[in-house]
Structure formats: structure tokens, C-alpha cells
Amino acid sequence: MPPKPCSPACANASQVLPDAMDFVVTTLLNALTLISILMLVGLGLAISFGLMNVTNLAHGEFVTVGAFAVYFVQSMGGSFWLGLAAAPIAGAVVGCILEFAIIRHLYSRPVSTVLATWGVSLILQQGLELTFGLGAKPVTPPIEGTLDLFFTVYPAYRLILIAVAMLTLLGVVLLISRTSFGLDIRTVIQNREMAEGVGINTQRTYAIAFTFGAAIAGLAGGLVAPLAIVLPQMGVNYLANAFFVVIVGGVGSIGGLVAGSVFVGGLTSVLNYQISPSLAQAIVLLAAIVAVRLRPNGLFNGASR
């Protein structure tokens, strides 16, 4: 006897599970994309703010410079990958100039650093606006298609972004933990006077670390450029979220950076499905304040008190 045909109710029920899995997988991948972007932007800020105790309000402009580097290369006929290679170089150049001209003279004056870097951020925004003009700049991703992930289809470029971010994070962890330069950074952070006493050039170490952080932020800008609106003011939003990530996760810790990125990026992605982005951002800010109140030293390395 042939099986009875499925009733409409049965057919609808059989469709619920695939639809639910599609929603869950897509939400998780969207969250992972945002987490990856925040990790890269926050990684550069964690070096300057978390490790060097420099409040750099121009850090978001390193992201902007990276995005505009990709746009410029593509507008000149170059490929996206060439532009992506130029993005961290552009960020590093701007960061090196900023550290040499301003930051190194203000390490012992944190308030002056805040004011100076805020002014630099405005100068960079206006400079980009005068150079490239008003309006959003188009950046074409290297891959336009999607990949079939069994339960859903997802843009291939976003998966590339996630992979590059994870590899970059792994590379930074190895650099900090396995190289002599990483040892110098950790020594200077723990005790600058002792580091100078054993012959470490602390000024050079700070300069290289700050430039390296700017390069990572530039790479983040290059990666996010095909997904974002490339404007001279685009770095402002990434600056605020990067500070959330570093402070909530735990200052001076790679594990804290990951925890903060998951907290901010995951919560933002989930809320964006339910409410407007502006309200979601406000709720994330409130949640970050509560998290810092409950764990003042960060989610990863802070003890509740």
C-alpha cells in the first residue's frame, strides 16, 4: 500500500526545521562576520590603549585610511587583493607619522593625547574629504557569489573575511608569544624602567607596536570596505565599538579581546534582527556598562567585585 500523502499541516511542519536552521546558521555567520571585524579593529586599539595606555581617538581613521586605500587602488584599475595589501601599509604609514610627530611626546600626558588625537582624527577626515570628494565610494568585493552551506547559502566574501581575521589574530598571538619582539613588548608593558635597564629601546618598541596596531586597523578597513559605506567619517562608529570591545573584554589581553568582540558583536547581530540599529547600539552600550560594573577588569581576566 502506497504511503498516504502528507497533509498541508504536515508539509508546513516539515518545512519549519529547515527554515529555523537557515535562520540560526545565517545569524551565527552574520555575528561571526561582525565579531571578526571588531576583533581586527579592537586588536589595533588593544595595542595602543590596552598595552601602551594611549587613548588614541584617531584609531578609527586608520580603518578609514585602509578602506580608502582599497578604493583608490580599484579606481586606478588595480585588483581588490592589491588594494587589500596596500591597506595595512597605508595604515602603518599614517600611524608611524602620528606616533613620531605627536604620540611619543605625550606618553606621560594622557589628557593631551586625547585632545591631540581627536584633532588628528578631524584633520584626517577633512583631508580624505578634500582628496576624494563627498559621497560614498564603491568598493567591489573579489568574489560576488555565495556558497551552499547545507542549511543556508552565504556570501563567499564574508567567509573569506572571517578566515583572514582568524589567521591575523593567530599571527598576532604567535608574534607576541613566540618572538623576541613580543618579549620586548611584554617586558616594556610590565615595567618600562626595568626594560630600559636591561637594554631594551622602549621608545622604538612603542613606535613599532603603535605602527603595527595601525596596520592591523588598516587591514580591517580594507576587509570591511566592500561591506560598508566608505566615507571619510566611517571610522567613528568602529572607534566606539572597538573601545567597547577592549574595555568589556579586558584591557591588555588577547583573550579579553576575543571575549569582548563576541559580547559586542554577537549581541549587536542578534538585536539588529529585532530592532533598529540605533536602538540596538544603545542597548549594547547599556549592556557594556553593566558588564564593566559587574566585572571591572573585563569579562576574560577580571574578577567580579
TrEMBL record:
Membrane topology note: Multi-pass membrane protein
Record-given protein name: Urea ABC transporter permease subunit UrtB
Entry similarity comment: Belongs to the binding-protein-dependent transport system permease family. LivHM subfamily.
NCBIfam families: urea_trans_UrtB
Compartmental location: Cell membrane
Keywords: Amino-acid transport, Cell membrane, Membrane, Transmembrane, Transmembrane helix, Transport
UniProt xrefs under InterPro entries: ABC_transp_permease, ABC_UrtB_bac, BCAA_transport_permease
Primary location: membrane
Database matches in PANTHER family: ABC TRANSPORTER PERMEASE PROTEIN, BRANCHED-CHAIN AMINO ACID TRANSPORT SYSTEM PERMEASE PROTEIN LIVH
Spans traversing the lipid bilayer: 23-47, 54-74, 80-103, 115-136, 156-176, 206-231, 243-267, 279-296
